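To make this tangible, this section ends with a sequence with its structure tokens:
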Amino acid sequence: MKNFNWLENPSLQTLVIEELKGLKTYETLEDKKNIKTLILKDRLDKNKIASLGKLSHIDSIQVYKWYLDNETEAFALLPNAEKIRENDIQYLR
């Protein structure tokens, strides 16, 4: 999957993305104003991190702690950096 143009559910408020092959950025989520929480269980590179800065309508963007610790500078440059935090999804054991 290369983009989210197909995503048209107006009641969707939380989106979990996990290892989508072919997806280079999250920019196509910019038009999905109904999404308020984005949970990324995805591998992030500089392009994907930079594209998160265009998602100002999203209240909470959650990523793995490893990226927050190791890509600190890239996240700090984003205009919505205060909305990005550690992924807090807990799995049942």
About this structure: The helical segments are 46-51, 65-70, 72-76.
